[in-house]
Amino acid sequence: MGRIVLVTGVSRYLGGRMAALLAQDPDVETVIGVDVLAPDPGVPGVQIVRADIRNPVIAKVMGEARVDTVVHMGTIATPRQAGGRSTMKEINVIGTMQLLSACQRTPSVESLVVKSTSAVYGSGPKDPAKFAEDMEPRHPPTSGWPKDSVEVESYVRGFSRRRPDVSVTTLRLARVLGPRMRTSMTAYFSMKVVPTPLGYDPRMQFVHEDDVLGAIQAAVHRRAHGPINVAGDGVLLLSQALLRAGRPILPVIAPLLPSVGRALAPRSLVDFSTEGMRYLQYGRALDTTAMRENLGFVPAYTTAEAFSDFLQGGRTSQEVNTVG
User: Which residue in 126, 138, 123, 118 sits closest to 282, CA to CA?
Assistant: First the structure.
């Protein structure tokens, strides 16, 4: 008998692709896709359940189906996608709490895979050259999607202590790029004129959208325990990335950059929040040893290759993803 997998956030781009990929996996018998809205078009081979993970009804769905694996991709990275910051926080934090509660009450659950973000490490001048999973952030995030992700991970750790029989894998993704992605980062590199923080040239590390799916599928099978960084090899300086993008650059002193950026792209997904600004100033790089040794996953794309693939197709994408 094959695995019975529940995937949250299935109406969004990565969630839908992940559910479809698992539906083709010979070791998976059933895939249940959960979201408030049904994906359009539907996902072949996936049973769609329209439900809000903030509602306790999710426990009934999991219990009746005897779900053994949960892939949590139902978080949102920008207030615009959620309809406001308060709604975004409720979906991310309260939704995760309810899902974990459902997992705890479902005896059949054996594995939980959580899509998180490397933004939990924050960004700042005292950061190490590379963040390993056991390092404490020296500039912890204080707002937005990164802070939500810190809270989500704290609840996931609590669940892991209460259900030590469940394998819990938290994937801390680098900034995600690809030809079909639209995120705050792709929106930034797609601006007609790109404002940059004067005097800063941060290191940036990316992961390709296909490698995100590959890492999640590896986590479903490998059941590696604990947080794992996921990123392509190498880094790009912001100046190198913008040179490759061929965009005009407008250096701006850091305190004025958010105002200038919003004036240049008033309806864009670009993140000029406090945490977004710190990333544009200081960047972030990850140690991916655990990804290779514990998860057994090797990305197909380096950071530079992921960026190049985004440049070839990402500017015309109509998809919206939820990765920060």
Answer: 123
**Closest to 196 in 3D by CA, of 251, 258, 263, 277:** 251
Please name the helix (run of DSSP H) or strand (run of DSSP E) that holds residue 88, with its range, or none. Answer: helix 85-89
How far apart CA 257 and CA 281 sit, in angstroms, is: 11
Q: Please answer whether residues 82 and 145 qualify as being in contact, where contact means their C-beta atoms are separated by less than 8 angstroms.
A: no
- Could you tell me how far CA 50 lies from the centroid of its own chain? 22
Q: Are the CB atoms for 74 and 95 separated by under 8 Å? A: yes
Looking at domain 3-316, what is its CATH homologous superfamily? NAD(P)-binding Rossmann-like Domain (3.40.50.720)
Q: What is the DSSP letter of 122?
A: B
Q: How far is CA 131 from CA 54, 205, 207, 283, in A?
A: 32, 12, 15, 12
Chain mean position to CA 195: 25
Residue that is written with structure tokens 């094959």 in the block: 2
Amino acid at 245: A
The encoded tokens of residue 250 equal 């407008």
For each successive 10 residues of the chain (324 residues), what is the average pLDDT? 93 94 96 88 90 89 96 86 81 94 97 98 97 97 94 97 97 96 92 97 98 98 94 98 95 96 90 94 98 97 98 57 47
CA distance 135 to 307: 27
CB contact at 8 A, 7 and 24: no
Domain ranges of the chain: 3-316
Strand segments (E) across 145-202: 167-173, 175-177, 194-197
